[in-house]
Each structure stands twice: as structure tokens, then as C-alpha cells.
């Protein structure tokens, strides 16, 4: 296929971005065991931030290196600004990368739309709960459900079942701590982070414990919110642990169907409660060093890739892949 | 003589007190949360407009010609879902809506929130930060064990506090 200079530059940009993205994701997966061991020395909140950054890293590095190094060098080095034949393999690779990124964006857009619709529906069917001193609005839901959740992106609110607020519901202290947990999610923009991860194209490699990076981030974000709500006070942490079990038990009293994911969720509940009963201590505040090393390594690898891929001969070779 | 107006669950018999069994509003909202079919929606609109109608009258008001049995089956289905009530007049059922369109919309929204809020698996495509993942059933023994662990930890914490306060 014959493409104009602009189209060729776009084609090579897409392919190079995809290649860097794939390579860095692969490297991250290969180094995952070592990374996770290092992360254990960090607090939950630090770990959550590193895990989030690690997921954005491969695509971010691909876009940055392509946009700042590869393409400018290609444009400067390319002497032929006329239309030129491009190999079918290169075009196929570019279409595959665009399809991969496009489907991730579409999935994210669909999730965002459904979430906004759900948030709008919640606002229509729920009643505000005046709780002074709380920045995040609270709505109570009068249905047959037992839960507390942070809903929405732009104007997030906390949705809580009326049954948990009433006379036979949770204690004042339990409600207060549970709301602090959800407020921590709001303050950290966790719903926005979750949405961004939904939009992120990823190979979804499974780590040593069977989870992928996104699932690991989600679990860690919950732990971090637990720690924020507990504020280092053992009594508060125990009340939160009791609240988690109480909410899980209330849901259990109204069973619907058996879930194949039951074991995973039960295991997560056990780990959360154990963390609250016996909080990890003496975590070294060395996260800046860990991050520095991690990002330094990633930066060196990424820059090396970019320099290699910005070789004009290599880019020309990429463009003519599949060209007889 | 018109027979009693019935709702789903009530039995038509001479011994019946005539009091219909109340259907669970959660069932209706759950049904509405999953949405009504196009035909069901059209029939509901006809009944909201007319107030009450027989099978023949409903069939005559539909935009597409449907067989009598098809309309009858759909009306029966809506009755069993709790959206319609019916009374027998001269060997024919006269149907009317048991909820206004506003109430249907409100119940639909309520059912949607309940379904998506209460069950994590129902909402794979909703971004939500829940305090506890709502699965259908946690193991009761496990929850008891967790509560026991928490009680022990609380007792140990209290003991530790008492020991610190003991005079030397």
C-alpha cells in the first residue's frame, strides 16, 4: 500500500508505541516477583501508588518515547516526503495496535457511561443523609441491599443502605469509620483511577498469585483506605474489622446464587481482617528509593529502546516489513 | 357479579376472603430493573392510556396485529410479574395497571440500584468502590471464625492496656 509521508509517520508511530508498550509490559511481568517483594516493604498507600504508576508506565513510556524521540528523529532524517510503498506487515501491525487501543478506549467509555447512568439512578432513588463535617455527600438507599460504596466520578457520593443506618444497623462509630474508608477512596480519586485502568490496553498477564496488576491494585487500594480510616488507632482498626464482617454477614442472610468467585472474595476478606487485627509495622519509608530505582531502570530500558527504534534505518525497515 | 380484583398469589375461590396476597415490591422492582420487552411496554402504555381493557380491546390498540392468544399470554405474564391486576367480568378478564408509569420508572430505578449495588457479579462494568465486595454468600463458619479472632484481639488489646495501668 502506498502512503503519504504523514500517513507513514503515523503508521510508524503507532507500531513503535505498540512495540515499546509490549516490551515494557513483558519486562514488568518478568520482573514482577522481584517488584512485588520490594513493594512489601512499603505501606499500603505507597504500594497502591506504585502499582498504579506501574500499570500506566508501559503505555505512557511508549507514547512519550515515540512522541519525543522516535518520530522527531524520523521526520528529521527522512529525505523522501513523497508517497511511498509501505509493507503489509507494518500496516497489519499498526491496525492491530490501533484495534487494541481502540477496544480498550471503547470499553472504558462504555464503563464510564454505565457508571454515570448508575450514579444518576442512585441520586434519583436515594435520600441525602446530613452528616456534618463530611466533604463527600452521603445518600441512603432504602432497598434490600447491605452495603456502602463510593459512586461516581465527577461528583462522587457515598451510597449506604438504610438498613445499616437504622436502630439494628451498625453502631455510630462503625458507620463513622466505614464512611472514613469510603472518603479515603474519594480523596485519592480511586474511582477515577479505576476508570483509567479500565481504559488502559493491557495484556493482562497473571502474576505469581494468580491476580493481574489491576486486581492487585484494587486490593491494595482497599487496604490503603482501611489504613486511612483506621488512622493508626488499633481500636478503630478492630471496629473496622468488625464492620467488614458485619456487612458481609448481612449480605449472607439474603443469599441469591452461589458464586464461583466466592473463594477469592472470602480469601480477600480474611486477609483484610487479618491486616486490621495485626497491622503490619516497621515498614521502611524507603519508597522514594524503591521508586527511584524502579523508574530509573524503566527509564534506561525505555530510552535504550527508543534510541534503537529511532534509528532511521530501523524505522525504514519497520515500514517496509512485508514489502516484497 | 364482578369477581374480586386479584393480584398474583391470590386464589379465586368461594372460600377466599378476597384479600389478595401482597406481592413483594422487590420482585417487581427486580423485574423492572431487567427491563420490559417491547411488546410488554406497548401493552402497559395502552392500559395506562385506557385505564382498563380486555384482551380484545388491548389487541385492537396495538400498533402491530397480534394473535389473541399472544396478547393474552403477554397480559398474563405481566399479571404474574405484578404489574397488572385483573377482574373477571362475564367470563373475560379485564386488565388494569397496578402501578402508574411514574411508579414503574421509580421501581425500575430502585431495582437497578438494588441489583447493581448488592451483587458484585452483576456489575462487571460499573466503577464502584465498595466497603465489602457483595457476593451472594459468605461461609458462615468463616465469618464466625473472623469474629472470634477480632474478639481475641480486642481482649488482648484490653489486657495490654490494663497491664500498663497496673501500679508498680
Largest interface (C-beta under 8 Å): A-B, 64 and 41 residues
Q: Name the assembly state.
A: heterodimer
Order of helices and strands of chain B: HHEHHEEHEH
Beta-strand percentage range of chain B: 5-15%
Mean pLDDT across every amino acid position of chain B: 75
Distance between the termini of chain A: 11 Å
- What's the CATH topology name of the largest domain in chain B? Arc Repressor Mutant, subunit A
Instruction: Report on the biggest sheet of chain B.
Output: 3 strands, antiparallel
How many discrete domains of chain B? Answer: 2
Order of helices and strands of chain A: EHHHEHEEEEHHHHHHHH
Q: Mean pLDDT score of chain A, rounded?
A: 83
Strand content of chain A: 5-15%
Structural account:
- The complex is a heterodimer of chains A (324) and B (168).
- With 324 residues, chain A is mostly helical.
- Chain A has one domain.
- In chain A, 68% of the residues lie in helices and 6% in strands.
- Chain A contains twelve helices and six strands.
- Chain A has helices at 5-30, 32-39, 44-77, 88-125, 162-165, 172-187, 190-199, 213-230, 234-252, 262-277, 287-309, 312-319; strands at residues 2-3, 84-85, 127-128, 138-141, 148-151, 157-161.
- In chain A, a hairpin with a 5-residue loop joins β5 and β6.
- The radius of gyration of chain A is 24 Å and the shape is elongated.
- The relative contact order of chain A is 0.16.
- The radius of gyration of chain B is 26 Å and the shape is elongated.
- Chain B is 51% helix and 11% strand.
- The relative contact order of chain B is 0.12.
- Chain B is mainly α and 168 residues long.
- Chain B is built from six helices and four strands; from the N terminus they run ααβααββαβα.
- The model of chain B is unreliable at 1-25 and 164-168 (pLDDT under 50).
- Chains A and B meet through α4, β5, α6, α7 and α9 of A and α5, β4 and α6 of B.
- β5 of chain A pairs antiparallel with β4 of chain B.
Amino acid at each position: 500500500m502506498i502512503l503519504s509521508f504523514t500517513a507513514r509517520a503515523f503508521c510508524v508511530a503507532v507500531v513503535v508505541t505498540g512495540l515499546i508498550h509490549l516490551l515494557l509490559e513483558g519486562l514488568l511481568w518478568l520482573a514482577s516477583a522481584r517488584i512485588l517483594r520490594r513493594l512489601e516493604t512499603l505501606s499500603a498507600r505507597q504500594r497502591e501508588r506504585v502499582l498504579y504508576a506501574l500499570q500506566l508506565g508501559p503505555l505512557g513510556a511508549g507514547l512519550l518515547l515515540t512522541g519525543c524521540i522516535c518520530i522527531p528523529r524520523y521526520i528529521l532524517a527522512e529525505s523522501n516526503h513523497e508517497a511511498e510503498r509501505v509493507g503489509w506487515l507494518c500496516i497489519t501491525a499498526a491496525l492491530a495496535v490501533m484495534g487494541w487501543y481502540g477496544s480498550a478506549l471503547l470499553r472504558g467509555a462504555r464503563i464510564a457511561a454505565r457508571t454515570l447512568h448508575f450514579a444518576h439512578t442512585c441520586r434519583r432513588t436515594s435520600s441525602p443523609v446530613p452528616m456534618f463535617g463530611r466533604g463527600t455527600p452521603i445518600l441512603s438507599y432504602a432497598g434490600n441491599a447491605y452495603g456502602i460504596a463510593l459512586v461516581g466520578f465527577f461528583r462522587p457520593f457515598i451510597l449506604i443502605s438504610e438498613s445499616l443506618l437504622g436502630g439494628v444497623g451498625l453502631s455510630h462509630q462503625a458507620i463513622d469509620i466505614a464512611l472514613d474508608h469510603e472518603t479515603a477512596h474519594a480523596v485519592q480519586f480511586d474511582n477515577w483511577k479505576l476508570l483509567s485502568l479500565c481504559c488502559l490496553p493491557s495484556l493482562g498477564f497473571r502474576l505469581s498469585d494468580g491476580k493481574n496488576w489491576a486486581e492487585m491494585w484494587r486490593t491494595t487500594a482497599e487496604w490503603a483506605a482501611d489504613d486511612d480510616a483506621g488512622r493508626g488507632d488499633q481500636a478503630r482498626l478492630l471496629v473496622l474489622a468488625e464492620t467488614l464482617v458485619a456487612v458481609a454477614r448481612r449480605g449472607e442472610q439474603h443469599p441469591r446464587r452461589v458464586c464461583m468467585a466466592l473463594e477469592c472474595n472470602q480469601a480477600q476478606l480474611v486477609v483484610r481482617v487479618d491486616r486490621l487485627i495485626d497491622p503490619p509495622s516497621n515498614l521502611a519509608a524507603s519508597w522514594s528509593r524503591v521508586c527511584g530505582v524502579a523508574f530509573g531502570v524503566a527509564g534506561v530500558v525505555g530510552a535504550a529502546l527508543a534510541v534503537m527504534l529511532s534509528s532511521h534505518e530501523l524505522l525504514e525497515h519497520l515500514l517496509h516489513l512485508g514489502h516484497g | 357479579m364482578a369477581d374480586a380484583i386479584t393480584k398474583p398469589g391470590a386464589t379465586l375461590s368461594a372460600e377466599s376472603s378476597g384479600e389478595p396476597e401482597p406481592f413483594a415490591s422487590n420482585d417487581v422492582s427486580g423485574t423492572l430493573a431487567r427491563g420490559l420487552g417491547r411488546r410488554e411496554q406497548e401493552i402497559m402504555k395502552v392500559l395506562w392510556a385506557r385505564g382498563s381493557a380486555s384482551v380484545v380491546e388491548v389487541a385492537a390498540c396495538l400498533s402491530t396485529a397480534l394473535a389473541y392468544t399472544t396478547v393474552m399470554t403477554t397480559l398474563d405474564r405481566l399479571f404474574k410479574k405484578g404489574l397488572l391486576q385483573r377482574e373477571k367480568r362475564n367470563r373475560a378478564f379485564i386488565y388494569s395497571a397496578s402501578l402508574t408509569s411514574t411508579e414503574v420508572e421509580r421501581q425500575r430505578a430502585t431495582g437497578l440500584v438494588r441489583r447493581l449495588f448488592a451483587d458484585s457479579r452483576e456489575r462487571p462494568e460499573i466503577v464502584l468502590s465498595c466497603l465489602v465486595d457483595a457476593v451472594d454468600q459468605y461461609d458462615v463458619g468463616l465469618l464466625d471464625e473472623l469474629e472470634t479472632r477480632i474478639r481475641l484481639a480486642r481482649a488482648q488489646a484490653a489486657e495490654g492496656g490494663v497491664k500498663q495501668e497496673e501500679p508498680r
